[in-house]
Design a protein that fits this description.
Elements lengths: L24 H7 L9 E8 L5 E3 L7 E4 L3 H10 L4 E7 L16 H12 L4 E6 L12 E3 L2 E3 H18 L3 E4 L6 H11 L8 E6 L6 H7 L19 H13 L3 E5 L5 H10 L4 E5 L1 H12 L5 H15 L3 E4 L2 H10 L1
Parallel strand pairs: 1-3, 1-4, 1-12, 4-5, 5-8, 9-10, 10-11, 11-12
Antiparallel strand pairs: 2-3, 6-7
Helix pairs in contact: 3-4, 4-5
The protein binds ligand PBG.
The site of ligand PBG has 12 residues, from helix 6.
């Protein structure tokens, strides 16, 4: 703004009064720039092997692992809250070096998908496509020695995606960070008649300490080394644009940034650089921190959660994967 406008007739400096539009809730509602809606939310679900299982995840209060036969109680609640989508993670009975549980047509994600599509056809099923929950070494791909092999992993990821699509998954969400995974999965889906199934790529996924509670929940911590040779280095932003550009070129339909809170600058850049819908994953460690502080009475959980999720919208996300989805949906409905 031009400095002259700051001068009054007598030549003295003056100032603007931004508080005028903050005086009442009615005014604040009128000038509000972003909003959070239940339509933005995707709720992650852990589906475990066995029967009659509803197990709490200790580091994620309020989150449970369900066996397929107990999933209905959770789905009922999700449907009643009008949450549009769930993201499915599977916890198999046994793991092996090639993660064969991931592409087993009778696997947990496949069976849960069939159940949801039968009983809640309107609920969008997003299938997480990765091997780490299914491999005995806990890595997201095929291991040779201490190396995570890129191209050998692609074949297994493609098989997993086809098996998930065959079970009825509405969206395939590959999270493994191998180079070329969108290309490999798109080709395989198309070859099997699933041209209509979109890919939500975990395009920009950092090697983050915030995944700790998830790895407890899914039993997917790497048994040696870490994921830094495939997930991104947290200080990098330009590289995030290259990762996303690759996935766009390979045929991704939605771009995801993960984690959320510490990476909202990345969300903004991805939003401004590409025209695809952008998702952000508010991950397990972010959830655990909020829950722990809330349990101690140190923060107001409702306000903190709604502020965080709104911040993700403001950063440019179109949709948010969050373990807070059910609470947020309830709070949003209360008004
Ligand atoms: C699987 C996967 C992970 C998460 C989502 N998909 C874990 C990881 O990469 O180790 C993390 C989700 C969360 O922390 O909530 N590759």
């Amino acid at each position: 703004m031009c400095e002259d406008m700051r001068k009054e007739a007598d030549g003295n400096m003056t100032f603007g009064r931004l508080r005028r539009l903050r005086r009442t809730e009615g005014l604040r509602r009128l000038v509000r720039e972003h909003s959070l809606s239940v339509d933005d939310l995707i709720y992650p679900l852990f589906v475990t092997h066995g029967q009659g299982v509803k197990e709490p995840v200790p580091s994620m209060p309020g989150v449970f692992r369900y066996s397929v036969d107990r999933l209905a109680e959770e789905l009922e609640e999700i449907a009643a809250l009008r949450i549009p989508a769930v993201m499915l993670f599977g916890i198999p009975a046994s793991k092996d070096p090639l993660g064969s549980g991931a592409y087993d047509d009778e696997g947990e994600v496949q069976r849960a998908t069939r159940l949801i599509k039968r009983d809640y056809p309107g609920l969008v099923v997003v299938a997480d496509t990765c091997l780490c929950e299914y491999t005995d070494h806990g890595h997201c791909g095929v291991v040779r020695g201490t190396e995570i092999e890129n191209d050998a992993s692609l074949e297994l990821l493609a098989r997993t995606a086809v098996s998930q699509a065959a079970a009825g998954a509405d969206v395939i969400a590959p999270s493994n960070m191998m180079d070329g995974f969108v290309w490999a999965i798109r080709r395989a889906l198309d070859a099997h008649g699933y041209q209509h199934v979109p890919i939500m790529s975990y395009a920009v996924k950092y090697a983050s300490a915030f995944y700790g509670p998830f790895r407890d929940a899914a039993g997917s911590a790497p048994q040696f080394g870490d994921r830094r040779s495939y997930q991104m280095d947290p200080p990098n932003l330009r590289e995030a644009v290259r990762e996303a550009a690759e996935d766009v070129a390979q045929g991704a339909d939605v771009l995801m940034v993960k984690p959320g809170m510490p990476y909202l600058d990345v969300v903004r850049v991805i939003r401004d650089t590409f025209d695809l819908p952008v998702a952000v994953y508010n991950v397990s460690g972010e959830y655990a921190m909020v829950k722990a502080a809330a349990q101690k009475g140190w923060i107001d959980e409702k306000r903190v959660v709604l502020e965080m999720l709104t911040g993700m919208k403001r950063a440019g996300a179109d949709m948010i994967l969050t373990y807070h989805a059910k609470d947020a949906a309830r709070w949003l409905a209360e008004g």
